[in-house]
Amino acid sequence: MMNIAIIPARGGSKRIPRKNIKAFHGKPMIAYSIEAALESGCFVVSTDDNEIAEIAKQYDAQVPFIRPAAIADDYATTLDVIAHALRWCVESGMEVTSACCIYATAPFISPSSLQEGMVALSIEDIDYAFSATSYAFPIQRAIKIDNECRVDMFHPEYLNTRSQDLEEAYHDAGQFYWGKAQAFLEKRAIFGANSKAILLPRKRVQDIDTQEDWELAEALYRALQC
Known about the structure:
Strand content: 15-25%
Structural class: alpha/beta
Radius of gyration: 19 Å
Oligomer: single chain
Helix content: 25-40%
CATH class: Alpha Beta
Number of helices: 6
Number of strands: 10
């Protein structure tokens, strides 16, 4: 029986080309996820791209297969990718009890938060444990903007409610998702009553989908090194 970490890393990123292996403060972006995962034991990098596979191996990751094209496009979900990797493990004779999906673009991930998720999954009756953080602004005060930049509130009933009286809201931090192997294989919903959030400070969370996201992440990383 074992726990493994799976790092999905496809080669077809469009908004930031090759972002999984683009240099981020001196090393490929994926290296940060691999280095953090090393403290969690055996792990697998799932990729459809030979260049990503070679770079992953340089940082001591195992890359036992190349991801099929059918689950390497813009429509493949994380659950599709993890289920494929777990089926490969089962067919190879590996007895996997739990898996941790770690995104390749998570330079602020820490071994301690990965360990916290692993412990939560092992001692509590849950399917998943994933990274989350709080919103910096009350979501009840969110506004929508039309094509003419005119605004309307999503929840006008909270217009005059004091911020301190509004319930705090949280969101997926996009770093890791621990899950029981059977939960991943059955593609059970991650965000539900059978999941636990591992809370991270906002200063250690930055989604990286656009060039602006990338620049913010670089600036935040520099600030955290000071």
